[in-house]
Amino acid sequence: MKLKLASAAIGALLAASPALADLVFPDLSYRTGPFAAGGIPFSDGYQDYFTLVNERDGGIGGVKARVIECETAYNTEKGVECYEATKGEGALIYQPLSTGITYQLIPKVSADKIPLHTMGYGRTSATNGRVFEWVFNYPANYWDAASVAINYLLDENGGSLEGKKIALLYHNSAYGKEPIPTLEALAAKHGYSLSLLPVDSPGQEQKSQWLQIRRERPDVVLMWGWGVMNQVAVQEAANIRFPMENFIGNWWAGAEHDVTPAGMAANGYKSLNMNRIADFPVFEDIRTHVHGKGLAAGDGSNVGKVLYTRGMYAAMLAVEAAKKAQEIHGTANITAAMMRDGMEALEMTSEMMEALGAPGIGPEFSVSCEAHGGSGMGIVQQWNAAEGRWIALTDYIAPDQDVIAPLVEQDSMAYASENNLSLRCE
Amino acid sequence: MFYREAGDFKTSYRDDSQTFPIKFDRFRYYAVLLVALAIVPFFIDSYWANALLVPFLIYAIAAIGLNILTGYCGQVSLGTGGFMAVGAYACYKLMTAFPDVNIVLHIIAAGGITAAVGVLFGLPSLRIKGFYLAVATLAAQFFLIWLFNKVPWFYNYSASGQISAPERTVFGIAVTGPHTEAWAKYLVCLLFVAVLAWVARNLTRGSIGRSWMAIRDMDIAAEIIGVNPLKAKLTAFAVSSFYIGIAGALFFAVYLGAVEVGEAFGIQKSFLILFMIIIGGLGSIFGSFAGAAFLVLLPVLLKNVLVGTLGWPTDLAAHIELMIVGALIIVFLIAEPHGIAQLWRIAKEKLRLWPFPH
């Protein structure tokens, strides 16, 4: 019996039967742990869109997409296990939705030659395609987000932030630390003072940080939070009666579940967003072709939410890149290397987005060999607690590339020299 | 039938006090070593290495380290994660400062630095013990993590605060960095494990190990019969931290390649390794391996069975997996409070008489 069990177990471990006929899109999701609130809607949107493409269009260029879900719990060790377990299946692209796992995977995907798309997260300097061949972070990254937030504040304050006090409340990890260099460079340029308030993961304990905010009275609090940290921060801000309109989260701190626990007190909280939220026609297709047939990922309750929309947008960009790759190479059965070529040639126009049933979901952008980062534009949205929805306050705001470009250059060149990489696209 | 001593004659004290006195056991040990060293490296793929064997071996080193301190010397420590972080950051600073030196030397040096830090944080153990010492080591855990987050020198001023291991080679073969072959990773960890486990076994049955155990069993009595508590406790902290530091260095450089201190070496890691030695068996080298295997391999196995074979949703499987592992821990501890090592000992006793117990 023991032997039987053992051999069954070994068999289960080795049960990896590669079906070469599919296009494989692994989904390193997290539906458990302190970050599940954000991981679930994103993963639902990501998977539902691939199911939609399979059901409605019969796949991508006639080849079915296959999503392999693997639970990481936002934990890097499990992320590595998931990566190793799925890469042999012919994975075309990885989107781990975790900056920690991204840092882990950047060297690995570069060695295994599989593209990595970190949409609005991950390593910012990966936007430099001359150094990072396999990593993409279009349509925007953290440094863009920091600059968009500052540009918005400049606009609000008549073009000057001289003498203003801005506090950054951040998740004390690679994710939260990413915007600091940009915010510091911008502080030097615009004359505001920046104070840094780290919150240790997962972020349930923030009393001392908010006490400090109460004492220092910053004009604006920016937040780089994720998971349970966001809800707690919004609640704490409400507790000290911090004016919500001066509290701005980044695009990972601006979903419905972040503000609803605080109820009416969260009214007026602002956040960035890299994609628009609206009742896109594509949701109707998802309801008919995916949910109607009982194929929904998760419980199907998240359609149209902020992170669901973003997950769907991520899948949409992956599908468009795959189509581009099929077009370039003239074959429907693309490999990971072909997928990379497709991503590098991707161009999103408003006509394309309209044709996909999601007009204006993201900014128009194009990717090239040098620039893997897209346009970097973002919008500012505000929570209306009475109506229970996010309202876009601005159109797409462009980041200050004069500040970001030299920082990207410096950081990516440091990476290149550390790893003895020669520059591409020359 | 299996563990028969009949015909296995010992003619010297040396033979009599060897680690595996029974012939069958000894050959089984050689067979395991042979398979691990000479057969596995030829068949290992990157999934087996990165997801199963390398983490298992590294956690086994950390568990042996903690077992020396807690299991043999009786000093409860919750600072394991912090000491692993010291090993990892020491290794990172050495790797980047002296790129031409062999990485194996860096890893050993990282263990040495961790030993020094461990002795420093072990000083309170001379005055306090039990729960109070646990709290003092907990302070070490939080202080060290805070330090590595706060001071940019430790992470070479990188924008994200992450440390990542550049490629380093041993005899021209990459053992760190993304281009490392699965077998190279595995063999480096295996060699460290084999040597360290052998050293630990021999330390713990020598005079120094006996002085640790005397302190564990009753410190006042030990002092009266002439065991120096200062020396015994501080050597336990030093040796234990050396092992944990090496585990941390391997964890960062060979296994993950990039770490974030709060996430990789947080308090959960300290608890995980403490659970490993409690479940595996306090005061047993085999128990350290068994505990590491139980907590590293079992969750992956369950996940593969539930998601891969049965096709359950990943979130359901993740929750059920927690429940199964938790239930098994309770079952094990009720069935045998001294851990898997004790179960193994009892099984061996029974096998010696089997099939004629009377």
Automatic annotation (TrEMBL), chain A:
Top-rank taxon: Bacteria
Recorded hits in CDD domains, A to Z, give: PBP1_ABC_ligand_binding-like (cd06334)
Q: Does the keyword Chloroplast apply?
A: no
Signal peptide position in this chain?
1-21
Q: Which residues form the Leucine-binding protein domain?
A: 28-372
Give a yes or no for keyword RNA-binding in this entry: no
Q: Which InterPro entries match?
A: Leu-bd, Peripla_BP_I
Q: Which UniProt keywords apply?
A: Signal
Family indicated by similarity? Belongs to the leucine-binding protein family.
Q: What is this protein called?
A: Amino acid/amide ABC transporter substrate-binding protein (HAAT family)
> From which source organism is this entry?
Rhodovulum steppense
Lineage summary: Bacteria, Pseudomonadati, Pseudomonadota, Alphaproteobacteria, Rhodobacterales
TrEMBL record, chain B:
Ranges annotated as spanning the membrane:
27-44, 50-69, 76-95, 101-123, 130-148, 183-200, 236-259, 271-296, 316-335
User: Where is the protein situated, by its record's location annotation?
Assistant: Cell membrane
Q: Major location, coarse class?
A: membrane
Keywords in UniProt for this one? Cell membrane, Membrane, Transmembrane, Transmembrane helix
Pfam families according to UniProt: BPD_transp_2 (PF02653)
- Tree of life domain: Bacteria
A GO term for molecular function: branched-chain amino acid transmembrane transporter activity
Q: Which residues does UniProt call coiled coil?
A: none
Q: Does the keyword Cell membrane apply?
A: yes
- From the UniProt annotation, give the residues forming the signal peptide: none
Bilayer topology reads: Multi-pass membrane protein
- List the GO cellular component terms: plasma membrane
Q: What is this protein called?
A: Amino acid/amide ABC transporter membrane protein 2 (HAAT family)
Question: What's the source species for this entry?
Answer: Rhodovulum steppense
